[in-house]
Amino acid sequence: MNLRRANLRRANLRLANLPRANLRRGNLRRGNLRRDNLRRANLRRANLRRAHLRRANLRRANLRRANLRQANLRRANLCRGNLRRGNLRRANLCRGNLRRANLRRANLRRGNLRRANLRRGNLRRANLRRANLRQANLRRANLRRGNLRRANLRRANLRRANLRRGNLRRANLRRANLRQANLRRANLRRGNLRRANLCRGNLRRANLRLANLRRANLRRGNLRRGNLCRGNLCRANLRRANLRRGNLRRGNLCRANLRRANLCRANLCRGNLRRANLRLANLRLANLRRGNLRLANLRWANLRWSNLLWLTCIR
After folding, report:
1. pLDDT in tens for each of the 315 residues of the chain?
2. Can you list the positions of beta strands (E) in the chain?
3. Is 66 left (phi over 0), alpha (psi -120 to 50) or beta?
4. Which of 4, 175, 194, 245 has the least C-beta neighbours within 10 A?
């Protein structure tokens, strides 16, 4: 069906069967497309602003550069859909299926993606600023250089996700699953990662300044040259973590588990390591100046050539 450039503003097309329909540059503003079958339809550059697409089937549909601002796509099927450079600002995609969808450079600012399935989705350079991604499935998703500033990712599944050079400043990642995720050079400044699972995660050169990592799981994580200045790592699990040349200046590592951790050449100046477990840890050439190691476990720790000036270790 060829409906190219058709004006269907406020049209009622509920339950319509339009597979492979050509609606390129069509005007469907405020249209009712609830439960429509638009599988493999061509909606490139179409105007779907405030359109009602609840439970619509848009599988493999072409929505490149389409305007879906404030559109209702709740529980819609966009599996393998092409939404590249699409405008989805404030759109409702709650519980939507976006598995393997192409959202590269798409604008999802303040969008509602709660419990949405974005597994293996392409969100490279996408704008997700202040977006709601609570409990969303982003497993193996590509979010490289994406803007997730102040985004809500609480309890989200980001296992093996690519967040390299991503902007996650002030993002809420509380209890999020970031196991084996790639966060190399990512900006997590002032981020909330309380109780987050970062086991075996790659955080090399990541910016975690003033971040909240209380009770976070960073076991075997790579934090080499990472910036954790003034970060809260109280009771965090850093067992066998690589913190070589890491900046932990004024960091709170009270009761943290650093057993067998690599802190070679790390900066722990004025750091709080009270009751921390540093058993078998490598602190060679580490800067512990003015640090608090009161009641810390340093059994068999390597402190060779480390700076212990003005150190507090009174039991």
Report:
1. 777 777 778 888 888 888 999 999 999 999 999 999 999 999 999 999 999 999 999 999 999 999 999 999 999 999 999 999 999 999 999 999 999 999 999 999 999 999 999 999 999 999 999 999 999 999 999 999 999 999 999 999 999 999 999 999 999 999 999 999 999 999 999 999 999 999 999 999 999 999 999 999 999 999 999 999 999 999 999 999 999 999 999 999 999 999 999 999 999 999 999 999 999 999 999 999 999 999 999 999 999 999 888 777 655
2. none
3. beta
4. 4
Measure CA 72 to chain center: 24
C-alpha 182/C-alpha 201 separation (Å) is 6
| Region class of 161: left (phi > 0), else alpha (psi between -120 and 50), else beta | beta
The residues, ordered by sequence, that sit 6+ positions from 206 with a Cβ below 8 Å of its Cβ are: 183, 184, 185, 186, 187, 188, 223, 226, 227
Q: Is 292 helix (H, G, I), strand (E, B) or coil?
A: strand
Sorted by sequence, the CB contacts under 8 Å of residue 272 that are 6+ apart come out as 251, 252, 253, 254, 291, 292
Which token pair is 163?
């967040």
- Cα 199 from Cα 236, distance rounded (Å): 11
Q: What domains are defined for the chain?
A: 163-315 (2.160.20.80)
